[in-house]
């Protein structure tokens, strides 16, 4: 990954973007794609779309990633100055206590910690994890009046973590899910622009995927492209504590993951596989028999049905503050999207033939 691409990825991962509060992260993405897109626009909820206008002789295809991350929200400010929480998306109660967090207020960030009673003061041996609704944030306030001067109900909260380089080409950070997808969508568009492909290509950064795939439903209805490819993280199951029943073929560093089944339209799957073979890009296959759990599920049920595909980026420890990806996989996903954009120009229709 070259320096400019890495700077963009770092900026995305360093910008908090919890569901419903994505504006700062979207601004980073828009500033980047504006350097090469023919047009960039947003809708009322903050979905962002960048366009490469094709020759008119090819189809319209969208590359999408979701901008939002999981987190928490201030549910209540207590009289003693502590904050009660609710979830934003699929936050994990087993890893939240004892963590540094940031409350994002209108006046700027406020630091806090999710309280965890010391081991010396707990009955050990039969412990259970408290629900998020029973956990609390300590921002150092001495009473509720002081706390209310700093935060208010409805302020979002994220873990206070950094981007760390691991060995080789691997990175760890909060929110890989799914800033790596929006990075990939932007890079797929950039490659389409560089190659001046015949297809009209949209790069899309959606909002509120983590709370029900809402942004993709909005964008799918508005754009109505001929095909849509959602790029999202998927579980790399190559770490030693994954139970056997969850083990799958996806490994970190082995390339993009092309999903088959459910939302994944067979003709778009074939296009991706053929483009990968032509471009000599190694891919992995994944079965999604019921649903993908990604924006692909929102696209393929929009309007009369948009042919869709989920391309996965292998990710360890999803929905934790220490998600791990391999930048070689990211480079290969970007290359695959570029190859798909080029190959799509020859497609007359994605419709299933009988």
CATH architecture of the largest domain: 3-Layer(aba) Sandwich
Number of structural domains: 2
Overall, the morphology is globular
Low-pLDDT windows of residues: none
Strand count, sense and barrel status of the largest sheet are: 8 strands, mixed
Task: Characterise this structure.
There is one protein chain. The protein is of the alpha+beta class and 354 residues long. The protein has two domains: 3-69 and 174-344, Aminopeptidase (3-Layer(aba) Sandwich), CATH 3.40.630; 72-159, Peptidase M42, domain 2 (Elongation Factor Tu (Ef-tu), domain 3), CATH 2.40.30.40. It has nine helices and 17 strands. The chain has helices spanning 3-13, 23-33, 93-96, 144-150, 176-195, 214-223, 266-278, 295-299, 327-344, and strands at residues 39-42, 48-52, 60-66, 71-77, 83-88, 100-105, 108-114, 136-138, 156-159, 164-165, 170-173, 200-206, 227-235, 257-260, 284-287, 308-315, 323-326. An eight-stranded mixed β-sheet has the order 1-2-12-3-13-16-14-15, with helices on both faces. It has a six-stranded antiparallel beta barrel with strand order 4-5-8-7-6-9. The protein has a three-stranded antiparallel β-sheet with strand order 10-11-17. A hairpin with a 5-residue loop joins strand 4 and strand 5 (83-88). Helix 1 (3-13) runs antiparallel to helix 5 (176-195), helix 5 (176-195) packs across helix 9 and helix 7 packs across helix 9. It is globular. The termini are far apart. The mean pLDDT is 96.
